[in-house]
Specification:
Elements lengths: L7 E7 L4 H5 L12 H13 L5 E6 L3 H10 L7 E3 L16 H7 L1 H6 L9 H18 L3 E7 L1 H11 L1 H8 L12 E7 L2 E9 L1 H4 L9
Parallel strand pairs: 1-4, 2-3, 2-4
Antiparallel strand pairs: 1-5, 5-6
Helix pairs in contact: 2-3, 6-7, 7-8
């Protein structure tokens, strides 16, 4: 971005594939390492975003996210600021259980939240993620910022900002979600966050093989 445009653009990336992703386990505040594929995905999206001059990077304090951020920015002099505000939803005592356990609780439980299990509600998650964005806005009013976070956190954020995006991501018949190392873009327009892209995998897919995109 050229100086003088006075626009903040945030590139939000979900972490790469993890062991718990493969094993279909609930992974909120608990952690598991990136798989070999997850490492490749992070390096790939780093190449896909190599022409973006990032001012800074904010990421969740979860190891899978910090590792992804470091792999994306490998060889670049971009400061990384870990923050708990960008962590995934806290599922409480069912962390690490099978996803079947989560599904068995039903949609109502997801909407109600997991406070009774020692976790969070979706509103609590959204509030802290929005707080992180406001912090970024205050620190970097102009430029490109990389944010690395989690699937649930990203979907919750995007869905709150744009009804059409929510319908696309959460469509019961064909839910898109946000894949590992997909890229979503927010633009700050006069104090309002506008979703420019949601769950775009092109930045990653161009470079997932050794051959770069044309």
């Amino acid at each position: 971005m050229e100086k003088g445009n006075h626009m903040l653009r945030i590139y939000i990336v979900r972490h790469g594939e993890t062991l718990f992703n493969v094993q279909n386990k609930i992974q909120g505040w608990c952690d598991s390492p990136l798989t070999e594929k997850g490492i490749r995905q992070a390096k790939a999206v780093g190449k896909g975003l190599k022409m973006i001059p990032f001012v800074s990077c904010y990421c969740s304090t979860s190891e899978r996210v910090m590792d992804t951020a470091q792999l994306i920015l490998e060889g670049r002099d971009v400061p990384i600021y870990p923050t708990k505000k960008l962590k995934e939803l806290n599922f409480g005592s069912i962390e690490g259980d099978s996803e079947e356990k989560l599904f068995s609780l039903g949609f109502e439980k997801m909407a109600e939240g997991f406070v009774d299990l020692g976790g969070e509600t979706m509103n609590m998650l959204l509030k802290r993620v929005m707080s992180a964005l406001e912090e970024i806005r205050q620190n970097t009013p102009d430029g490109n910022v990389l944010v690395v976070s989690h699937g649930g956190a990203i979907i919750t954020l995007l869905s709150s900002l744009d009804v059409k995006v929510r319908e696309a991501l959460m469509d019961a018949a064909n839910p898109r979600g946000v894949e590992n190392c997909s890229v979503s873009i927010l633009v700050d327009k006069k104090g309002e966050w506008v979703v420019e892209e949601a769950g775009n995998t092109a930045y990653r897919d161009c470079y997932e093989t050794e051959d770069a995109c044309e």
